[in-house]
Amino acid sequence: MTEQEISKIVFDCALRVHKALGPGLLESAYEECLYYELKKSNLKVEKQKPLPLVYEEVKLDVGYRIDLIIEDKFIVEIKAVETLNEVHLAQLLTYLKLTDCKLGLLINFNVKLLKNGVQRVINGIL
Question: What is the pLDDT of residues 90-111, one digit of tens each?
Fold first, then answer.
């Protein structure tokens, strides 16, 4: 399955979650519900996956955790904030770089229309 195909499935699942719950909940609630929806789609999904940093051949556990990684090649970073800002984007860009993943979605569920809360990041480019 390609990253593009995964992206569409993730967006559709996120839309279902957002329609059911609306804005205003905690990030963890959206993460659990999106994880559940994605698992129903028969995708390999891992949540809160630890991500070590390798520096000069030393593997460092510095506390990075990927919200959702799908099929070992697509990252979803979930937020429930008033406004996405540069630090949220930087976080996803870092995860993409450290995992060599090509595509990710930054999803803010705290919006009236979900399409306004989604940023697609490809190879470090919005």
Answer: 999 999 999 999 999 999 999 9
Q: What is the pTM of this model?
A: 0.92
Q: Can you read off the two tokens belonging to residue 66? A: 């990927």
Q: What gap in Å lies between CA 99 and CA 72, rounded to an integer?
A: 9
Segment 50-72, tens digit of pLDDT: 998 888 888 887 778 999 999 99
Tokens of 48: 């809160």
Query: Domain extents for the chain?
Result: 3-122
DSSP string for the chain: --HHHHHHHHHHHHHHHHHHH-S-S-HHHHHHHHHHHHHHTT--EEEEEEEEEEETTEEEEEEEEEEEEETTTEEEEEE--SS--HHHHHHHHHHHHHHT-SEEEEEE-SSSSGGGGEEEEETTB-
Q: Please answer whether residues 68 and 75 qualify as being in contact, where contact means their C-beta atoms are separated by less than 8 angstroms.
A: yes
